[in-house]
Specification:
binds adenosine-5'-triphosphate, binds magnesium ion, 37% helix, four-stranded mixed beta sheet, 10 helices, UDP-N-acetylmuramoyl-L-alanine:D-glutamate ligase, alpha/beta
Length: 309
C-alpha cells in the first residue's frame, strides 16, 4: 500500500477571468474547486493509474471536511487527523496574461498534532511506501519532517520525499528510498544554482553518496533524470506541447513513476511514464489522468534528450 502524507493540504479555488482590477469588484468567468496539496495530488494520480493509496495529513473545519468528502467521492482512501482551525483555501487567479496565486496560511497545527501523526505513521504496515511531500504548517517547527522520519526509521518502509530543498537537506541522513527535487530544490540542497542537466546529474549522484537510495530530478521542459545507488542512470525527455498550467506536474511525475514501479515496470519505463504524466499535467489545467498520459505517450512528439548518459 502507498500512503501519502500532506501536512498542509488545501482546497484550490481557481478563478478564470479576462483581467483583475485591483481595488474594484471583479467578476469571474468561471470558477473551479479542486483538492490540493502535494501528497493529495500524488494519491489522486495514483488512483487514476489504478494504484490504491491512502491520503494522510491534517484537516480542519468545514473546508477540511469538504476536502475529505471530495476524496471520498473519488473513492480515494483517506485517514486524516483533525486539527483546530480551517484547512486553507489557495486562490489561483487565472487571467489571460498572468497567473496569480494567493495561498492560505492553514490551520493551527501544534506539536501534539505532530505527535499524533507520528504515532499514526508508526502503525503503517511493513512493506509500505510512504510519500512525504509539501510544506510544513507555519505553526510547526521547520524540522518537523525529522520527527516523521524518526518514527519510520529502521522500519521496512520505503520513504519517498518531495519537499523544499532546505528540508530535503535535513532528511538525507535518514536514508530515504527516493527523493524528487526539481531543479531549484536540488540547487537549494547544495547552495548553488543548477544551470544544466549535467550539473543536476552530478549533484544527484552526490546525494546517493550521502545515503539516498534513488533520486529523481525533475527538470521541467528538460524532462527528468533518475539515478540509483546501484549505479543506474536514466534520463527521460519531455514532450512538445502547449503549456497551460504546470502546478502539480512534479506530483504527477512522482505518482506515475510509483505507479509504474508498483506495476512491475523497470526504472527507465517508470521514469518515462512519470515524465509523460508530468507533461500531460503541464499541458492542461489540473492533474492529468492515466488515460491522458498514455495518449501522450502514444501520439506525442518527444523532445531531444537534454542529456546523453
Ligand atoms: N514547460 C514544460 N514543458 C514540458 N513538460 C513540462 C514542463 N514543465 C513541467 N513539465 C513536466 O512535468 C515534470 C515535472 O516538472 P517540474 O520539474 O516543473 O516539477 P516541479 O517543479 O516539482 O512541479 P510541482 O512541484 O509544481 O508539482 C517534468 O519532468 C516534465 O515532464
Ligand atoms: Mg515539486
Amino acid at each position: 500500500m502507498i500512503y501519502t502524507v500532506t501536512m498542509n493540504p488545501a482546497l484550490d479555488y481557481r478563478i478564470y477571468t479576462e483581467s483583475i482590477y485591483h481595488g474594484l469588484i471583479n467578476r469571474s468567468e468561471r470558477e473551479e474547486i479542486h483538492v490540493g496539496g502535494k501528497g493529495i495530488n500524488v494519491a489522486v494520480v495514483l488512483k487514476s493509474f489504478g494504484i490504491p493509496a491512502t491520503a494522510m495529513g491534517f484537516i480542519g473545519g468545514l473546508t477540511g471536511e469538504m476536502l475529505r468528502r471530495a476524496l471520498e467521492q473519488e473513492r480515494i482512501e483517506s485517514d486524516f487527523l483533525r486539527v483546530r482551525g480551517l484547512t486553507r483555501i489557495n486562490v489561483k487567479i487565472r487571467e489571460k496574461e498572468a497567473e496569480t496565486d494567493i495561498n492560505g496560511a492553514g490551520p493551527e497545527v501544534n506539536l501534539k498534532d505532530l505527535k499524533r501523526l507520528t504515532e499514526k505513521l508508526m502503525q503503517i504496515p511493513d512493506g509500505s511506501v510512504v510519500v512525504l511531500s509539501g510544506s510544513i504548517p507555519a505553526t510547526l517547527p521547520k524540522d518537523s519532517y525529522e520527527c516523521l522520519f524518526d518514527a519510520l526509521c529502521g522500519r521496512d518502509v520505503r520513504i519517498v520525499a518531495d519537499m523544499a530543498g532546505a528540508q530535503l537537506k535535513q532528511i538525507v541522513k535518514y536514508r530515504p528510498w527516493l527523493i524528487k527535487p526539481n531543479r531549484e530544490e536540488l540547487g537549494e540542497i547544495f547552495g548553488e544554482e543548477v544551470k544544466d542537466p549535467l550539473q543536476a546529474l552530478t549533484l544527484a549522484e552526490k546525494l546517493l553518496t550521502q545515503g539516498t537510495a534513488n533520486v529523481i530530478v525533475s527538470l521541467g521542459e528538460d524532462g527528468a533524470i533518475f539515478v540509483s545507488e546501484s549505479g543506474e542512470r536514466v534520463a527521460a525527455p519531455s514532450y512538445f506541447g502547449n503549456v497551460k498550467d504546470t502546478v502539480g506536474a512534479g506530483d504527477a511525475l512522482l505518482a506515475a513513476f510509483l505507479a509504474g514501479k508498483e506495476s512491475g515496470a523497470n526504472n527507465s519505463q517508470a521514469l518515462a511514464l512519470g515524465v509523460a504524466a508530468g507533461c500531460a499535467t503541464a499541458f492542461r489545467s489540473g492533474l492529468a489522468t492515466a488515460a491522458e498520459t498514455r495518449l501522450l505517450m502514444e501520439n506525442g512528439i518527444r523532445r531531444a534528450p537534454a542529456i546523453d548518459l
